[in-house]
Amino acid sequence: MPQYSSLQPQARLNHQNQPCLWKLSKALAVSTYPPCRLLIATPNQQDAKSNKEKLLKNILGDKHSIEAVINFSSAAQGKKGIEYSLIVVDIHPKENKTTVYIDVSTSNKAIANLSPENRAILGASIYRLYRGQHPAKIFVPEEVESFLRAQFSRGYRDVKNICVAVLNNPGKLVQAHSVKQFIRRHQDSADTVSSVADLSEILQILHHGKPPSCIFVIGNNGAGKSLLLRDLITRLGEQNITTVGISTTIHDRFPSSDATLRHRNFIYKGARTSSRSIMLSNLHEDASQQTANIFKDQHKLDALVECFESLGYAPRFYLIKKAATVAEDTAADEQFIKLDLIVKNNKFPPNISEYEFGLVRAGSKEQVRPYSALSSGEQNITHLLLRIITNEQAGRVFLVDEPEVSLHLQWQQSLPRVFGILSRRFHISFVVATHSPTVITNASDPLMHCFQLNKGELRPLNEEERFSVESIILEGFDTYTPNNRGVHEKCAKLVAQTISNRNTPNGPDSKSALKELKILQNLVKTTGGNSSGASGDLELIRKAHTAISLLLQDDEIEIA
């Protein structure tokens, strides 16, 4: 008897939904499940409900049980179409204690970016994870694999609006409920859908009661770093942790006036003054007011001085009267007000908006540079420091989006040290999204954690990896440089993983290592040119392929 069969009790499935059902069934069947499972595909229309219940009662009886109900659609994305339920019946005596309900229909907005066929594959993959097995990689497209990594990197879990597994009542017939409604009623303890990656490790680091920390997430453009920060607003808000969003560009993905997020303790302190614009005059005025606030608080002022000194500025600060407000009879001491590093010695003019913040570079004697005359990088770093220090409060988490924009290499190297100073002084934490390997390689403080975001996977970087710029560039940015130590590390890692997988029952598909070697080989061939370093790396890749092929023995995947 085949492991799976298909029954269509209500209507013959037409050509529109055959691709979805075929992919769903195929992805379910690629495995050695204990026989036997029966698949029943039935439309979800109201008039089919009673017939479906009668059919299930006749099939199930007292010996069989519903293992899964998967809601999927027949129509193309964006069209109404017909929704179906694929019911997976366990023909064995009732052994499983739970039934999993999965909604991958086109009306499910939580997976809006997936096609109907890919939604079907997603549904089958979730079912396999629920059964403790890995998705069938041969059928899983990259966008589905990214979603699976983001939600289920540690195995199956209930996810809001996507899937829930519920205990069965031993004395009651398990029914194929309306999947959408059933999930809504039973998802109180389910996890929130993550847009880009599984955030559990970051959330654990930031949990209430844990010491302050600095978390750096590196990834290529488009990897989802900004969306990750936005997800953290919601997830940390659920724990009543206040988050502060900071960016120096208008292109951040933070909400500024999103009413649905206001109650989740989010404060926007980025560069935008409206939905997608920056008013420079407002930024300059804000800098003046923030400076005045800091110079009235000794604790804040000491932190500002230490940060600026680490960036190469002398600890000398001024308020400079704006040119447009200077009259002919304005005294010199009114045009330049030197600020004292002892708070009680400072006196501020009542019309602070007529002044702007000025500072002195180390080694430049008393050459005062007003905020408006600073370079874009200097303005960005000043804006960053002023916003953080004026909004500090113990326990807050600052979400910083690409702070390295417009900063020269030396300041990029100093950024982790600056965040460490602020974290320790104010007992605050940071999650910093960056595409700068320089930032990662300088995050050496014990309170710092580094992650790499790539294709839905948020992978912690160990100490050796974070100090290797070459490995970060190769793994995170798909970029090869000749004589790259990352190639050696990648080959060794794949061989070791293959050995481990072959010794693990129901482990991941070991053939994927050969595919990764093929991708790496193409990358080196494409970007390495004719250098001797590239030739040596290609030879190393060939040797790794030979070693893995011997381990797999019958594998016929070829690498040219």
UniProtKB/TrEMBL annotation:
GO molecular function terms noted in the UniProt entry: ATP binding; ATP hydrolysis activity
SMART domains given in the database record: AAA (SM00382)
Residues making up the signal peptide according to the UniProt record: none
Residue ranges constituting the AAA+ ATPase domain according to the UniProt record: 211-461
Pfam family, one: AAA_21
PANTHER family assigned: ATP/GTP PHOSPHATASE, ATP_GTP PHOSPHATASE
Protein name: AAA+ ATPase domain-containing protein
Lineage, broadest ranks: Bacteria, Pseudomonadati, Pseudomonadota, Gammaproteobacteria, Pseudomonadales
